Every structure is written in C-alpha cells, then in structure tokens.
DNA sequence: CTGAAAGCGCTTACAG
DNA sequence: CTGAAAGCGCTTACAG
C-alpha cells in the first residue's frame, strides 16, 4: 500500500510548517494569499485527502448522524422510510456530514437495547425515523445525545420533531371532497395506531366539524391490528360516497375491495389516499392523494439536527412540513 | 455537556495505567483475570464508550464501508437496491463496521466525480451497487481503495464482484416451463441494457438449446430504451404460450398488456418474472418468479469486502449467489 | 502480569 | 503573516 499523503508531506514540499498548511487548506486567516494558493496547488498535485479520523478526534465530532428506523417500517413493501433516509443522506453530505443507517430490531426495541452506533460513539446525533415505544424514547432521551424525531412525535415536549403536516393535509383533502358535493365521507385508518394516522383523522374530523357534518363512528374504519399489521377492512352496511384513507396502500386495498363488491371507482365511490407513494399510481384509477415532501422533510431534519449539535441547548420544537394535494382520477364530483 | 469518560478515567479509578485498561477492554493478553473483570465492571459503571475516532486514527481504519448506488436505480418505484443496502448495513454492523450510503448523481457519474466519502477518507472500501459506466469503473479502480461490484460485473477481470446467479435462475425457470409442456416461449428484456438482463437471457437461451428449441428473434422483446427507461412492449404477431420476463415489474406490465388484449393469465398465456419483489404479489395472478437472496448477497459482499481490507492483494473473483424459484399462480401446465 | 514512551494526523491557542 | 508546542484518546512495541 502506498503511504497516505499527510499535511506534513505538503509542508515539506512547500517548505512551511503543518500549521500553515492546515490554515491554508481550511481557508483560515493567517496565511498569505500567494502562499495559500501554492499550498492548495501542491495538495492537489500530491492527491492529498484529509484524514477525517484525526480531525474527528481533535474536534470531538464524528461528522456522522445516526438514522434509526424500527424494522417494522422497513418490510419489502415499505420503502418510504428508506427513501427518506436516502434524502437525508444526500442532505447531510451537502453539509459535510454522513448518515449511518441503523435498523432497530423489534427485540432490541423491546429489550431497550441502544443501537451500536451509540456505544461505538460513531455519531454526533440520532434521528429517530418512525414511531417507537415510549420506554425506548425515554432511554434515548437519557443518553444526552442530540435526538430528533422524524415523521412522528409524542408528548415529550422536550424533544424536537419534524413531521409532515398530516392534520392539515387530511383537512384540505376532506374540504376538497366536500366542495365537490360529498357529505357521506368515511375515514379509513386505526386511529390509535400511530400519531400520523391520528392526526390525519383529526384533520378529516375538523373539516366535518367546520361543515357541520356529524361524525359517524361506523364510518371510521379500522385498517390494522395492534401490531400495525394491515387487516381486512370491515365495510359498513351503509356505504359512504367517499373514503378518506390514511395512506395510499390502504386506499389501494379499499379500491380493490370495493371493486370486488361490484362498485366502480370513482363513478360509484370516490377514494383518496395519502403519501403519493407507489400505490397511488398502482391503483386503477390513479389516486388523488397528498404528497409528502420527502426532500423538505430530509432538509428540515438535517438542518435541525446540525443546529442541535452546534447548540445543544437550543430548542426547536415541532417543525411541520406541508404536503400538497395531487389531483388524479379517483374522485368524482357529486351533483 | 458532561465530559466524556475515557480510558484514563477508568485507569485512575481502578488505580492502573491506561495501557492495562486498553488491554482489558479489548480482551488482549497481559492482564490478570481478576483485574480484567474489575476494569470491565468499572467501565460499565462509568458508562464508558470507546472513542472510535481515536481508534481509527491509531489504526488507520475508519470501520466504514461506502455503498454507492447510481441514482437511476433509486427512483420512487425502485426500492430493490435500498433494501440491499439495508441488509448490507445490518451485515456490516455484526462485524463492527458501518455502511455509508452515497447516491451517485448522473452528472457526477458523467463528469467522473468521485463520491465525497472518498475525498474525506471516510471509508475503508467501496461497494458499487448497480451497473455503472466503464470510465467510472476505471476511475474508481485507479484509486487503490478496495472496490467491490455488487449485482453486476463486466470485463474488468481484476475487480471482484458478487452477483445473483441470473444465468442459472433464468435457465431453471425456462426448464420448468418446458417441463410443463411449453415450447413457444418468449423472453422480455433489452439484452444490451445491463449484464443482469443479458445473463438472464442467456440462461433462457441455454435452456432452449438443451431442449433443441430454436431461438426466435421476434420473441426476444425490448422492454426499455438506451437510458434504461421502460417502454411499451411491442407484442409479436404470433403469440407464444409463455413469457419469461427479466424482472417482476416488466412481468406485471406484460400481464396488464395481455389482459387488455383480452387474454387470461395463466389460462391463455403463462408469465414468469424475476426478483420476487413487490410487483410479484401486486400482479394478479401472483407471479411465479425467481427470488433474489438479498440477505446472502449482503453477507457475501460484506465478507468479501472485509477480506479485501484485511488482505488487499487477495483475489476473490466473481462470487455467485443462487436464487430460488417461487411457485405461484401465473403458469399453467400445457397438456 | 503491568506500565512508560511514542506516535497516529490534525488543529487550537499562543508567541514571535 | 508564520511556526513551535501541546493535546485530542487510543494502541503497539518494548522494557521491567
């Protein structure tokens, strides 16, 4: 193996000290303009690459951020969080940081085992992507490592979170349906399952309230069991004219089920989703849905995390990233 | 911020030197059994965590592996490589290593810009996941960083690669169809697009050859343009009784197209896929397909990479991971 | 079995 | 504007 080039090599070649090389390469004050150019040129010529480990030790920063996703959100048919991770990795890189992914196994979550990145002191902070058990949140919170929740939050008011505006997205979507003449509108989603679903439900409910449409409990449909596993949806005896589904995958299943019952979408029944993921265009007809702004989610969480590392005591609160309705073909206007 | 605990803190508390602490914590020789236990107990009590940066600098290893995926393989509807990455991250962690994901933008690929992880000396080796342009391969190869191809290979006989056994998988699948009485079998996939598709085609062809079934060029169908974008498939005038598709997504599209032409699957026409990804069970009927063993792919590539880091001059060659036929409902027996 | 010394490559005060 | 000194936390010879 050819030895790595260090600042010392550059210093010797140029005939200055390593201190000066360090200053020049980092654009710090205290080096003459001409000398600085010279040093940079020689660095380039020699193929110098910074030894990050040395810098890390010196500064006490790893320039890594851990991204922890509970494994139940990473099945073969759930790529959403992996896509978020991908965007986070990109966003971090543009700030000179790197992401390290950790899939948290369900057993580690139950047994309150912290991710290895923590014990190896591999990261300067941890982004928790996807709702996790309360005891685990407590545990993470007790580590004094900067923590950020992404795509969920709970009653830990002392932890910062970045979330999609689930509430407002579902509210706007329901308003849209009502504007088209719908008044019999169901919500599909188990409202005690995750805070996302709960907030989407509340947005739907607010829209009903504002329009003085009573909430009918038999039109709030369960879509998953207590483990989060999707279950068959029990259709109500009296059918609504529209279904607000808590996500595209469930909307896809609802459409299938309605079709099996001989109904046409959207002629007989309108169905809307949330997320604008692969299921939105896999459904026939393509779903009207709310697009989650993954890129913005990634950027906000990256910036917030870097801010927390720089000033650990600064509070950021709950940062809400708005979504956007994508109009497609699964909704019909009622006359 | 509370100061971090170091080996020195442990050493002082126990009344020994940091050398002894280091030996004890790393299970190295030269520490008495009882003392070792004592040291470990105190480390635990104090909540000691290794400073990886210091270890890294000392040993010249980052304990990180870069995983580079060209961005064209990471669209919203392509989660396969992200899932492979996820498994690699897991496999690496069990070896005390971590993965750092880098999505290679198409412009960086064209302009031969190496990933930042390289310049920041963030990784001990790079796994290239997904076919990449030849000039870029040359470039990577010139860096003297250990490189491993994953899920593709080309004529660089001096680079190691881990691939799914595309050839054998398609060969077995075609054999299966022939065993069921099919003799008019088409292949769907642009055979100059990627080496995976090419190898799957060759496996299909070998099966035909062995059974003395002539290859009909009009039954080798294009499915994507030169950019890899999927295109409408031009069905041949005379229809075969079975389609061997190069991947599940394309099988899904073929099924749709055949259905639109009024054909029933599998009664009128059999269709098989490859990958066993989300499209396999999204298709109606569910696809008979070849499952790619993602976990094994991840483990083999991780082990090979760690082997290369330990012994840079050792050659590993092309490591082939077998797939497995998953029998479902898209194939019918011809009598 | 235990420890003093040296060094990995960098950056931050501080002195000139 | 430039550089000598010190130190980040660890581990590897080496000496006792």
TrEMBL record, chains A, B:
Keyword Membrane among record annotations: no
PROSITE patterns, sorted: HTH_LACI_1 (PS00356), HTH_LACI_2 (PS50932)
Domain HTH lacI-type: 5-59
Keyword annotations: DNA-binding, Repressor, Transcription, Transcription regulation
Pfam families from the UniProt entry: LacI (PF00356), Peripla_BP_3 (PF13377)
Keyword check for Transport: no
Superkingdom to which the source organism belongs: Bacteria
Protein name: Transcriptional regulator
Native source organism of the sequence: Paenibacillus ihbetae
């Amino acid at each position: 193996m050819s030895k790595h080039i260090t600042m010392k090599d550059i210093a010797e070649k140029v005939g200055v000290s390593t201190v000066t090389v360090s200053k020049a390469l980092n654009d710090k004050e205290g080096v003459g303009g001409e000398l600085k150019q010279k040093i940079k040129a020689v660095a380039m010529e020699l193929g110098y690459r910074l030894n990050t480990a040395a810098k890390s030790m010196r500064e006490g920063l790893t320039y890594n951020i851990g991204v922890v996703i509970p494994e139940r959100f990473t099945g073969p048919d759930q790529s959403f969080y992996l896509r978020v991770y991908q965007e986070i990795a990109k966003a971090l890189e543009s700030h000179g940081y790197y992401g390290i992914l950790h899939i948290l196994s369900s057993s580690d979550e139950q047994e309150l085992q912290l991710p290895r990145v923590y014990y190896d002191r591999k990261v300067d902070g941890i982004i928790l992507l996807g709702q996790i058990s309360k005891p685990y949140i407590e545990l993470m919170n007790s580590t004094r490592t900067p923590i950020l929740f992404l795509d969920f939050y709970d009653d830990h008011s002392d932890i910062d979170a970045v979330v999609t505006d689930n509430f407002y997205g579902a509210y706007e979507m329901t308003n849209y349906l009502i504007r088209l003449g719908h008044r019999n509108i169901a919500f599909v989603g188990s409202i005690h399952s995750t805070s996302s679903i709960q907030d989407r439900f509340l947005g739907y409910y607010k829209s009903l309230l504002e329009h003085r449409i009573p909430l009918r409990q038999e039109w709030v449909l369960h879509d998953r069991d207590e483990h989060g596993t999707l279950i068959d949806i029990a259709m109500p005896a009296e059918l609504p004219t529209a279904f607000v589904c808590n996500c595209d995958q469930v909307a896809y299943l609802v459409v299938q089920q309605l079709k099996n019952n001989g109904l046409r979408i959207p002629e007989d029944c309108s169905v809307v989703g949330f997320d604008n993921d692969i299921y939105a265009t896999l459904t026939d007809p393509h779903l009207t849905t709310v697009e989650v702004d993954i890129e913005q989610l990634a950027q906000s969480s990256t910036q917030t995390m870097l801010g927390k590392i720089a000033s650990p005591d600064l509070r950021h609160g709950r940062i809400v990233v708005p979504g956007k309705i994508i109009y497609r073909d699964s909704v019909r206007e009622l006359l």
